[in-house]
Design goal:
39% of the residues are buried. The chain starts with 13 loop residues before the first strand and ends in a 12-residue tail after the last helix. With 276 residues, it is α/β, with parallel strands linked by helices. It has helices at 24-37, 57-64, 79-88, 108-118, 146-154, 164-169, 194-199, 212-222, 248-264; strands at residues 14-20, 44-50, 69-72, 94-98, 102-104, 124-130, 140-141, 180-182, 184-185, 189-193, 227-237. Helix 2 (57-64) links the parallel strand 2 and strand 3. The chain has a single domain, classed as Alpha-Beta Complex (Spore Coat Polysaccharide Biosynthesis Protein SpsA, Chain A).
Amino acid sequence: MKLKKNKGLTQPKVSIITVGMNHISYLKELLNSVYVEFRPKVSFELIYVDNCSKDGSVSFVKENYPEVIVVENNQIKGFGENNNIGVAESTGKYIAIINPDIVLLKGSLDKLVEFAELNTDIGIFAPQLLNPDLSIQYSVRVFMSLKILFWRLITRGKDTSNNRIIREYLLKDLDTNKTQSVDWAIGAALLMTKLFYCELNGFDEDYFLYLEDEDLCYRSWKRKKPVLYFPDSKMIHNHFRSSSKLNKTSYFHFKSMILFFYKNGLFINSSKHLGF
């Protein structure tokens, strides 16, 4: 992945990459938090990659936030590929992957960047994600295993399950006030240097949807760059979960799981056992 050079303009510290597809209601909240309510003090640019929306998302962004760099797809692409497209257009030192269903809170991005500047040995930084009611969201997890996959299927992927294996997978007993390394964090909100993102070759585009975030974090650990949970930075994640019934998203999720095991082996070690 090539680094785009800034053509004589002041380089922003952070490039926020947001990918959307018919997410105008979420975009309104996100962009309001970024540009109006809790605008970061750190210099930034926001690159919005539109994945063939039909809900007026592009028109809304262009009319109300002309400073946003808009990239429009002419065909539907996967989550990872879309983020890679956005990063290819970026010029910042840091890449902030921010989904459209995220809402920044006061100082959330500034705190994340300030901490990253002081901890250059870390690969990926993950803020604490909150549900809309401000309760803690299970956004950091241990790596997938065949045992976890079995119990996720049995419990129909419900995070509310109190099964011991699922509790361990979702790190439900984690001290959420403590800054600490974790196996991986969901890709709704992640920060890393653009240089490191490019060293990882970005998201693996073989994944169309799901597990591309876990795969990215696994590759970060394999390069001896930890993934760090940083709860001082807090963001709201209006996480939309599909029905537990079998549907198209279930198909993509299962396909991505098979791909993850194919690429990384059937027995994935936790970061605590990778010898780093």
